[in-house]
Amino acid sequence: MAAEAINHSAQEQDHHSSTGISNEKLAMWVFLGSECLLFGGLISTYMFNKDRIGLNDIGPSDVFDIPFTSVSSFVLLMSSLTMVFAVSAITRGDLRANRIWLATTAALGATFVAGQVYEFTAFYSEGLGFTTNLFGSSFYALTGFHGAHVTIGIIMLMSLYIMSLRGNLPAERAETVEIIGLYWHFVDIVWIVIFTIVYLFPQ
Amino acid sequence: MSTTQGTISASLATRLLGVFSRPQGSEGWKSWLFTVDHKRIGIMYGAAALFFFLVGGAEALFIRLQLATPNGSVIGAGTYNGVFTIHGVTMVFLVVMPMAAAFANYLLPLQIGARDVAFPRLNAFSFWCFLAGGVLLTSSIFIGGWFQNVPDAGWFNYAPNSGVLFSPHKGVDFYAVGLQITGIASLVSAVNLIVTVLNMRAKGMSLFRMPVLTWMLLITQFLLLFALPVITVALFLLMFDRLWESNFFNVAAGADPLLWQHLFWIFGHPEVYILILPAFGIVSEIIPTFSRKPIFGYHFMVASGIAIGFMGWGVWAHHMFTSGMGPLSVAAFAVSTMFIAVPTGVKILNWLATMYRGRLRFTTPMLYAVGVVSMFTIGGLSGVTHAIAPSDTQQTDTYYIVAHFHYVIFGGALLGLFGGFHFWWPKAFGYKLNELWGKASFWVMLIGFNFTFGPMHILGLQGMSRRIATYQASEGFAFWNMVATIGSFVIAVGVAMFLWNVFSSTRNWRRVGRPSVGPDPWDARGLEWMTASPAPEHNFDSDIQVDRFDEFWHRKYGRDEKGKIVRAARAEEIAHDGSNTNVHLPSPSYWPLVLGVGIMLVGYGLIFNLWIAALGVVALVGAIYGWCLEPADDPDTAHGHDHAGRNSLEDEEAITVG
Question: ipTM of this predicted complex?
Answer without folding.
Answer: 0.90
